[in-house]
Amino acid sequence: MSSPSPAVPAHVAIIMDGNGRWAKSRGLPRIEGHRRGVESVRTATYAARDLGVKMLTLYAFSVENWSRPPNEVGALMGLLELYLKKELATFVRDRVRLRTIGRTDELPAGVQKHLRATIEETRHFTDYTLVLALNYGARTEVVDAARAYAAAVAAGREKLNDSSWGTFSRYLTTADLPDPDLVIRTSGEKRVSNFLLLQAAYAEFVFTPVLWPDFTKSDLAAALAEFATRERRFGLTSEQLRPAAK
Ligand code: FPP
Q: If you take atom 8 of ligand 1, which residue's CA is the nearest one?
């Protein structure tokens, strides 16, 4: 078994929060905060890789975010489409694999088109993966998975008596992704907000007061340094993990 507490988390997931407050504190419209938030997405993508992280998942749009004012939802979708359009060549050049989690088939057609192209063009890169959580919500994910699992049982492809986390988790939107080791939330809020509820079962959490548009490589490095101090026990005792420790 590999070390239960490696110094660098392989998979970091971030709840990007505080775009609206960043804008409000400057007397700017909320969408300006989101626009600056896209810059932080770029910064974090490369900072994580430089710091040795293998996978970065960003909570870019939740199922619940559809209930925001229509102009904000429209602006977010516009920013997302523009970002994907601009980023494709950079991802190919820098060997960044793009993936998504969430109900992406409900996103606007233009966003879906760019997502498909970027995912396809980067699918053979293996060193580093950026995962965008789009139209994602953990409860929706579980309901979708339960429905698909029940259908598989009814069709005889799964046996109810063999049900386990291993068999069921293959029906989640994260099916072939590793669990996050570290979840970071920016802006000082200390909530999980329906993000990777099952996958983060053994993740470490770091909450930083920094608003997402201000989030820099050194803020990420600080979160990773905090992670390195944690002992991950996965339900075991400290003594079991480090038999020589008293
Ligand atoms: C939370 O800030 C942020 C979001 C709901 C959306 C995150 C989106 C981006 C960073 C830009 C688009 C993403 C990509 C990948 C191109 P908030 O609006 O809830 O801030 P507040 O709590 O201060 O109001």
A: 60
Q: What is the CATH number of domain 11-137+180-227?
A: 3.40.1180.10
Residue 227 has pLDDT above 50, yes or no: yes
Measured from the Cα of 84, ligand 1's closest atom is 16
State whether the beta carbon of 32 lies less than 6 angstroms from ligand 1. no
Model confidence pLDDT, tens digit, residues 157-208: 999 999 999 999 999 999 999 999 999 999 999 999 999 999 999 999 999 9
Q: Domain segments of the chain: what residues?
A: 11-137+180-227
Q: Please confirm, yes or no, whether 17 is among the known catalytic residues.
A: yes
Ligand 1 closest atom vs CA 22: 23
Please report how many Cα atoms fall inside a 13 Å half-sphere around the Cα of residue 231, on the Cβ side: 10
pLDDT grade, residue 2 (50/70/90)?
Answer: very low
